[in-house]
Each structure stands twice: as C-alpha cells, then as structure tokens.
Please model this.
Amino acid sequence: MRAIFPGTFDPFTVGHESVVRRALTFVDEVVIGIGVNENKRWHFDTERRLETIRSYYKDNPRVQVMAYDCLTIDFAKQVGANLIIRGIRTVKDFEYEETIADINRKLTGIETILLFTEPELTCVSSTIVRELLKYGKDVSMFLPKSKDNKE
Model:
C-alpha cells in the first residue's frame, strides 16, 4: 500500500518524522509531498525544502519526497497512492483535518488516516519554531534527530 503525506513542509516542520515513522508500520511506502504554491511566502524555497527532507530520508528506500502544485487528491492519483496520511498536533488540527478527510473520501474514495505527532510535540507548531529561530533561539529539541547524531 502506498500513502502520501501531503503538506507544505519546510526544514522546520515539527513532528513530521514521527508521523512518517508510524505510517511506515502499516504501509509499504510513504510519499512526502512538498506543497508548491506561488501565492504563499515560504521561509525556504522549494529546492531547499526538498533537499532538506530528502537528505533526512536518504537511507530509507520506503520514503520518497516530491514537490506538487495541485490538489492533494490529484497528487494522490498521480503517484498511485491509495491512502492519505495527515499529521496533527492539536484538537483544532484534528477537527480541520477530519473535515478535509471526509471531503476527500466523498470525492475520491481515498481514505485519510490522521496521526498525532509524538506527545512532546503536540503543542508545538512549525510557526512557533520559525519564530524562535527568527530571534536566534535554540530549536534543536523540536527537530528530528539526525540519523548520524541520535542524541
């Protein structure tokens, strides 16, 4: 089974690694989708986001990282995914994602599985991490550990 994990990842997306790791316990492959939208301002360009996330998963042949500039359901069809994985940190995330999952299911028949990030990341948003970085604060506790440095 192939799943997509769509989003607008940048190098500081909090909790994505724990969601991918958990998804790989019940699917064969996860395609991480880096959302591309020219109307949104990103802290990092698409190439840097792709390079950063790809480098993290470079030793895992079950994870692919791709850019996409279409609807999630269209991206799922393009890559042959039959499941959408969404990461959530808060109840507000859950309510929003549950509504989107219901719409996707009705439009396409593609199921969505909502996975909470690990407990220590549940209240930390990527926006907060970027704001801390802006002011020179250490955010290493919120980032996935490097495969070489598993502190």
Remarks:
- The helical segments are 16-23, 46-56, 72-79, 91-108, 126-134.
- The CA atoms of residues 54 and 60 lie 10 Å apart.
- The chain has one domain: 2-141.
